[in-house]
């Protein structure tokens, strides 16, 4: 995604009026959208649903959703001013800003988003108590929530009873 943003910025800066360059920019914007729509876009909703502790999960998801809507609104409002020729006059150079922000998101996610694959919500809470997001991929749960609550069956011991004629198992 970062690469697509910077390619659009470079092409738009070097060849702003070339029809082939404009087609290439449109193609890379579409590639960016497809990558975003299949990774970071829906992935953010999964992450916010898992990373908050159970006690504050509903409030955390609500605040994250409100923040998402707020920033989407801000971006939608300021972008026309950034690219308009009588205001910011950035044109395609705005993609340098978007590419840099995209790179910051990559760094943020690499260092601060934990790996929660295959864990229950309770195990994610326990993981945060015991490790850091950077080391979360190596963390292994010690037990399951059901075992901690005493909801699992105890192993059945095999008892063999001997009688004179046959054995009863």
Automatic annotation (TrEMBL):
List residues of the Major facilitator superfamily (MFS) profile domain.
1-117
Q: What is its main location?
A: membrane
Q: Where are the transmembrane segments?
A: 26-48, 60-83, 95-113
Which membrane topology describes this protein? Multi-pass membrane protein
InterPro entries (UniProt xref)? MFS_dom, MFS_sugar_transport-like, MFS_Sugar_Transporters, MFS_trans_sf, Sugar/inositol_transpt
**UniProt key word DNA-binding:** no
Q: Which UniProt keywords apply?
A: Membrane, Transmembrane, Transmembrane helix, Transport
Say if the entry is tagged with keyword Transmembrane: yes
List the subcellular locations: Membrane
| Membership in a protein family | Belongs to the major facilitator superfamily. Sugar transporter (TC 2.A.1.1) family.
The protein depicted here goes by the name Major facilitator superfamily (MFS) profile domain-containing protein
